[in-house]
Records
---
Amino acid sequence: MATPAESESISAPRRSPSGLRWGRGALLAVALPSITLVVLLVLWDRAVVHFQIPSTLLARPLDVLSELAYGLKTGTLLIHTWVTLQEVFYGFLVGGFAGFALGALVAESTFTRLALYPFLVAFQMIPKVAIAPLFIIWLGYGVSSKVAFTASITFFPVVINTIVGLRSVDSEVLEMMRVFRATRWQAFYRVKLRFALPYLFASLEVAMVLSVIGAIVAEFVGATKGLGYLILQEMHQLETARVFAVLIVLSVVGIILSWVIRVIARAALFWHESERGMPN
Amino acid sequence: MTTQGRARDVQVAGLWKTFDTQRGEQVNALQDIHLSIRAGEFVSVVGASGCGKSTLMRIVCGLIAPTRGRVAVDGEAVTQPRDDVGVVFQNAVLLPWMTVKDNVLMPSDLRSRRRAEHEERAQALLQMTGLTGFESKYPFELSGGMRQRVSICRALMCQPSFLALDEPFGALDAMTREQMNLELMRIWAETGATVLFITHSVPEAVLLSDRVVVMTPRPGRIADVIPIELPRPRSLKDYGSELFNGYTSRIREHLGAQTLA
């Protein structure tokens, strides 16, 4: 573990050197995106008016907002969001756990590696979207087919990163564990797993995004509830403003979910280079 | 610290180690090594990089098996790492998510659930190495020298009667290194453990050791074993004394001869 910065200083510089610069940076970090957003919205609105774009093609931002408010008030949006959230959550959980378990088996045992790894690689090559109809055929139009499809999509990044992570452990550390006469389980649980965590969390971030995509795609293929189903319904009725309202809900859901993963990762990886010296 | 288990003697007899290279050739890392370390003795092994001194240490610690020959600690053949052997590597190899105290307690945590029984010893070790007040710091908050001190504390945690150190101060700057040398001498005096010390620094070896083993590379062989009869306790003042220089130049003759050959 040859860290390049073998400095003699005792305190780790966790905060930026001057508080002033920090404050300005934070202000800019809020102000600049806000300005970008306002400019884009105004451009969008002016374009719709100026080019007389019909509302079935592109609604005005304020119309989208009022549809969003209406959907939230009547509860329609909330009901469908709740359904999709459940699919995302359980799919992510199942896919994540299965991915981690299989990754650990492949990384830790030559037997399972030889038996399973070629099929893992082959299966990963199949475009997942193409198999979504199968899940509908097998499990029906309800939540379970969406969970299964979402799980199958989130599974791969987690498997691969678990394998890479568990194999990334410094050989010196493992040698040290042998000196301490640690059991195989102790070496796995106390050392390898911890070193794999940065890789695992990176894949969970990807998996979280993929799980939202997975739920929506599965709903497109066949569903009676959920945000993907809602998008299709509104599309068929040319209610473009409502489609945009659903998209806003989806992006807010996505942002919150990734943020949750980031917060957990930050707490678990405080010791890792990727997290040190980062603000907030 | 004085309640150490009895020091062990270490016997290395007819040790050979052959590695297969990727090209399929065979390299003799060690050739016919005989070495006997008395209980409580401080023995250093010096040599250029690639002379097999780290391989020798790993075999003595039971981390790798020799091709031929035998290592015994107190007459017992070494086939795997032993409980009573403490090891320090060139890198501190601390676990970055654990505090200093948790790192030091790690060997005992692996063996027993009753942590409280060991905390006192950990505390005493940290005090001995000047780390009091740093118990709850993380490795990334420490300097290189301090990290290596934590690593030494950890090696001493299980009351080893034999301590093997593989270039422990190689990554440190010269001033920290001298300070660590003095500390190691003090620790050795306090614990009375047998020490095998691998280094590529000739003065370091002479300052610390009862005997210095000089190794030459390809194949790794013992060129000479030189008893160092400087009186103890030694200090940095010994550097540059006539006797001291005599030893270093005698060792360097061996090391120089091999580069010309």
---
Amino acid sequence: MTYGETPSQTVGPYFAYGLTPGQYGYDFSDIANHIVAGPDAKGEHIRIIGQVLDGEGMPVSDAMIEIWQADHEGVYRTEPVSIENAGFRGLGRCGTGTDAQNRFVFETIKPGCVVDATAPFINVTVFMRGMLVHAFTRLYFDDEAAANARCPVLQSVPADRRDTLIAKRADTATGPEYCFDIHMQGNRETVFFDV
Amino acid sequence: MSGFKPRDWSSHAPYIAPDYKSTILRGPTKPLMSLSGGISEASGPVFARAAVRDLDWDLTRNGRVNGEPIGERIVVHGKVMDGDGRPVPHTLIEVWQANAAGRYVHKVDQHDAPLDPNFRGSGRCMSDENGNYVFYTIKPGAYPWGNHFNAWRPNHIHLSLFGPGFATRLVTQMYFPGDPLLALDPIFLGTPDEAARNRLISKFSIDKTEEGFALGYQFDIVLRGRLATPMED
Ligand SMILES: [Fe+3]
């Protein structure tokens, strides 16, 4: 006997007090937040910043981004995720409704390369009002040009769209920062994957 | 580690579903690129039992300030399984919803319906070793939204599940049987296949109904199955 999948539905505009309560100031505990790796985590500490842009190029104020990544050695966490963990957590979650520019910001470490890949990357999931099914993409790093050139996933993407998956590094006074804007539509539409 | 079966798109909505107007500028328009079977999509976050705290699974009690929340108490039972009927154990389920009057606690909810000081409307639970879960809440009210003239959302509870891998992630909504607004709701109707979208409607259950306390509903959730593993018993 097989069973049909339960259809996906939108998170709607009111997910904040259920899914990201701490960030939005609601009195409910978090299971994940924008900190993917706490201060004790090994590896290079980085920040990831971006906006979600709609088909008119306007930043989306009610999107939620989740990221799931390997640790500095390229290993996915198999122990439970906890926001009490000051080390590597692996999972991050951030809404775009609390920043003046509707950005998401993650504090994390640069992942190592996982065993079946050739370049380091972060799994990114996009949820928002107006999307009935969430969208998957990947964040690669622009300072890994040689590894990216060998990556079969990146190479399978049309060359003129590959850039949409590559975060741009800037070294700031508060540490390395990668910019990763997510374009839902338009001529810079981010590559999304059928995972 | 084995991967998961491909997403069954016949069970899901398209990204652009024009009757739901916000999809028009927000859904991806280009075809998805395939990405099959790596360890990255097969791995995913797991949570300890302790992630579900004292009253997280009882929304009739977890927002109390000075009394009981208003509305019809319900208890929602369900089983999380994969497409082959295998239970999905120990998976975290997050829920959020409007109160009995159709009002969300969310600061930008402009609907002119009363907040309930004793109801927050968010909680979480975890499936047990057999995939079964339960939470208590108040039946949510319908609420208007700006999609079109006289647009009202049917009564619904939002649910978010992780499942065993990043690829099985699911955010969905549970509806109630017999709701006349279902036939008019572009979000529910966004799933074109009638049999698929009817899986979003919970079933009233007199067996799960608790004498003198709460009406029972059953809402089973089916996540993507794993690819066949060789030599399985
Ligand atoms: Fe809702």
---
Amino acid sequence: MAEVQLSDQNFEAEVLKSAVPVLVDFWAPWCGPCRVQGPIIEELASEVDAGKVKVGKLNVDEHSATASQYGILSIPTLALFKGGQVVEQFVGVQSKETLRAALEKHAA
Amino acid sequence: MPEQELYDTIIVGAGAAGMTAALYAARRAMKVLVISQDIGGQAATTNEIENYPGVDFSDGPSLMNKFKAQAEKFGARFVFAEVQRIEKGTDETNKPVFSVFTNTQSFQGYSLILAYGLTHRHLGVPGEKEFGGKGVSYCATCDAPLFKGKTVAVVGGGNSAVDAALLLAKICPRVYLIHRREDFRAEAVLLEQLKQPHIELVLNSEVKEIFGDARVRSLVVCDVADKSKERKIETEGVFIEVGFVVNSKIIEGLVELDERKQIKINLNAETSESGIFGAGDITNISHKQIIISAGWGATAALKAYEYLQKVRGFRGVTIDWGLAKKPTVLATPTDPAAAKP
């Protein structure tokens, strides 16, 4: 499954009210490391079990309300939401392995 | 049981050096694995590259993704993971085999190319780690826009610190530039631009601690000569630009390092350990540039190929550069012992 494009508008429905854990990649087009993280996120999204977890991307430039609500001050930030709460957060480029492990831990 | 796979060469790192090594090794028909946490390394964090010959202008990520695609085109495999440990062993014929371990997998290689570059130097002060992602940043070009309208501080005295201060000064009402010395190492043309009323230079000072709640609120600096002389600075951002260091955890004891923990290589990109090669910023070369790293990556791959020919009688593609019409002749091994039937 492809990653979900998140926005200020759909964040509540797609992330906060999601029945499964959601990994959110907070990124911006001007940020080099974010563009390194992007393909890793896409690969991860295509490999995970869509029935158990979800992977999404939020552009902090276009959707700054959500980004500032969660106090995003460094990008990329990868936040894992479960039941509407942030249960794990990573700052800086993360390997697919690290992210997959976090998703599996919280999907259980 | 962790996955075990055998490669002709395992390249650790996917910056300019590692990916060029992957391209050259793959074009010699070597079975190539690249293990890296990211793609492009430091080059991918820059938005402007104007000094890579043949490329008028590119941003870092685009150029680095081209490096990757080209290496993959010739068969190199990439794995996104952090290397935890490297072990040297031997196979049944008593020839060296290197085992590379990640969190969940292990891979074996007949040769190894270390090219994982440098990482950000940290200040090592209380609050720095705690407020990572909460106001402490190591990438001004990434995070500056998130501090628009806020008071911020930059730590460092080189070009990257001054660049960061100038970038932030465009969008922030107050910028402190904290530097351990009186003089800056940055270029004069940049220093001239620092003369702006809302940029304050805090010289001969070092950061002692960073404070905050859910995010950074202030920091305390002290005088370098007299540490009892302290000053509190209210700030919401701390941009740390104090250079780069080698993360030597996985190579300590494996290969010889210099006093800066950089891998010592010779003109053949060979390290102190036979079968292990080094390339790019992680080595003791003098200039950290994309083209130079790429050049060393190519050297390391070609020398790894020669090593495999000598030690294992490896027969890959011996003539490159599209000269396939000429009869293929195995390059004569330079080691007379290896030439014996």
---
Amino acid sequence: MNPQDLLTLFDAAAMTALAPLIALALGTLAVLACGIIPGGSVVRPIAFLASLAAAAAYCVKTLVDGAPATLVLDGTFQSGPTTAVWGLVFIASTLFAWLYSAHYYEEDAPFKGEHDVLMLATPIGMMLMAGAHDLLVFFIGLELLSIPLYSLAAFRRDRIRSIEAGLKYFLLGAFAAACFLYGAALLYATTGSLSLDVFADPTRRAVILDQPLALVGVALIASSVFFKVSVFPFHLWVPDVYEGSPTPVTALMETGTKAAAFAFLLNALAMLPNSTAGSIALIAVITMAAGNFGALAQTDVKRMLAYSGIAHAGTLLLGVAGSLNGDPARGGAIEAALYYMAAYVATAGGAFGLLALLERENKGTTTLESLKGLAQRRPVVAAALTLFMLSLGGIPATGGFLGKYLVFSVAVRAELIPYAILGVLLSVVALGYYLRVIIAMYMQSPAEGSVVPESRPTPFATTLASVVCAALVIGLGILPRWFLEVM
Amino acid sequence: MELLLLTFLPLVGAFLILLTPRAAAGVQRGLALVTTLAVAALGIKLFWGYEAGGDPNQYLFEVPWFSLPSAYAAPTLVYFRIGLDGLSLLMVTLTAVLMPVVILSTWGHVEKRVKEFMVWMLVMQTGMLGTFLALDLVLFYFFWEISLIPLYFLVGIWGGERRLYATVKFFLYTLAGSLVMMVAIIAILYQHGTSNVYDLINLLCRLPVEQQLWYFGAFALAFGIKVPLLPFHTWLPDAHTEAPTSGSVVLAGVLLKMGTYGLLRFCIHMLPGAAVAASPWMMALGAIGILYGALLAWAQTDLKRLIACSSVSHLGYVVLGLFALTPAGISGGMLQMVNHGISTGLLFLLVGMIYERRHSRALDAFGGVATVMPVFAVFWVFTVLSSVGLPGLNGFVGEYLVLLGAFQASPLWSVVGLSGVIFGAVYMLMATRKMLFGACTNPENKKLTDLGGREMALMVPLVVLAVWLGLRPGDFTSKVEPSLAQVQQRILEARQRNATASLGLETPGTAAATAPATNSGAEGVAAR
């Protein structure tokens, strides 16, 4: 390849599309460098935030320019407003996780540098996944996201649970990645291409999807994506991994990874045969049931939220099924998924963040028992957690409601009404356990003789992140216009 | 603008209370009372200002809110649109007037966490007013669901022993219905591209009855659970019994009316074809509810539970009247909504007052209370008479109109309902006899003190309303009649349309054409 080719490949449009990724990559290197230069621990947060801010600025610039979606880098990467909004979602997810991690690892402070490097690398992977128009690009993004997450999950190396989480996530994740590669290879064998372009032309798509080998490939790829978003029956790893991982990392997995995998799923929707809409809707409803009924049995709040995350993946998958059943215009599925995930990043991010705060105070896991009487001890924390629980449950005036409304509208428009009704009824089950958290905080007092943990002053980073999350949840709930117009 | 102020004034008050220090209970109570009094004044002003003959939809306030994306059609623009019309007028005024009474009643029984209590009360008022005023389907749903949360906290924190069970049951029951309604709202918005209630009223009545019935079913489920209609009523006695007095008053006075109001505005006015088709079934549910609720109430030994069951019975009248679909029935149903708010509100207040003194609600614990608490006895007997429909008091007019209207539509269910009137008098008077009269044998009861000035004062507005409604119901019905006439017009049109449709079915050609529509049901709805 001569330099001229490289210049054509990385033309102005490509550079615009890649600018946020480059900003993050440079930031990652800078944070890494902070580990060896004197005074690096002071510069590190600045470098971290600056690189996130630069990436966000580039995403906003793409939105302001309003250029239509185009394919760059020889048709392997999609740039445009949708990718940019997804980018902002990932950046927000990383920012919240990082802010909440600031005081989480007090005992493990020496390793904070490595932690930040790994964390800053994840949004690069997410953005690659969301913009990928080529299976190999997606795979690079997937690995760029997953490998840091494997290490982050095991980051509290003095805790057996954390190591278990990391190992489980790694083994199963590696298996899923292998599935993906195998599926991609099978597709390549039938189509001679790794680009999603082959599915763009309806006639060619029909021919491809008629070949059993290609279908096996598609099924393998779908399985590995379903693994990442934790859809039934690929959801069994979630509770253990989410429970064992450090809580800010759980927040990142729950929000960012899920968003990235869904972004790809919606981009690559043409890969799935339209006839699968019904079965995917069924899987979605089963996922919701598995998540919600699983969560109902939990007393550890973090584990409960892990199960609730499975249910939320099911809800989004119903939207995906809806867009498969509809016409190619997809019935607003991408908007719905974006809105849902944007609200979810703020809601679940904030909820896990507050759990991280409480964990630090309790010196242990947050159980429903330990939440009793929280409204009296920490009224503001309890109020914020209530807000997040109501948003997770999709009650109006929170972002969760409108996200749920939009996703279910996609399903209703696509005539998946029985599934939509089953879905909304399952979300009544969900309220059953979200309310339990509120009951513990507001309506029960600590059991007699139990040690009430001493309240410590809330770290500034936690306060900041929680205020932003709460503002986003309410803002998305009552002033959805701003966000909807951006999309 | 006035309506915007009316809706959000309580929220402003709630915010101010949030800023006060936790210990300043007096300030919080005062702020709550001042806020609700201001809202009540504004509500009364709007009521008098409402012109019966004028524009049916007055004080309209609307701003574009957001647009729902849709890749299929133009985005649906959702408005923040609130307005007052004949269907909501009485409910809004009742909500505004009842709240200061409720706040004043909490002086006696809410001692812990006063700040939170007042905040939730005021948030609830905003939720209820918003539900009645909303003229946009999405906005309506928004307020409808929001108003669940405050009561959830009110029962869950300040309730009785089984409060957690009661409050979760209440929440989940109501939510299940609401969410099915949400699916129907999504389908309606998708099909018609607007969420303006008035536009939809013009659009939906033209749909084939089969399609209307799908929507009707979803809406009626949500509203029926809230009312509560017969098979869904079990949450109500629990919630009422465990709720603090003020919670019960709001629940009976206003929150349940959100269900009957929804039935009137959406199930009847918006989907008249389906309402005509479903009328016999709904009347049956209403009439059986009257009888069943009365029998339930008869069997109760707990005073509060008894009144809760009587609520099931009284709301049966409302449903029976509304779904008679006759002018008398609908006006009667509407009046009965207000009457039930006043009478049952008073009953719950009185039970609360005696519970504060005696710490028991068991009927057996009382006897001869009239000798030690004569003023209480006067108020109680007055309220009971108003509740069982003594001519000259509010209950009579509503019940009479409902039964008259129902008789025109279906003599059978009217008679069943009528028997409920008798049972109603039986259980209410028996409870009164057991509690107030006879010998005062229990020494505990001899120590009871009679009502104080605050307690009498807070009941006066409701007593005045009860007499006023009983003697001059026209003052209230004349305001709402033009709107009810419009509803009636819709019903007549729907009857004609249904009649032609069923005639059309008999000719072979059209029968074949309409048959698929019957089968496809909800799918057909979405496909359009």
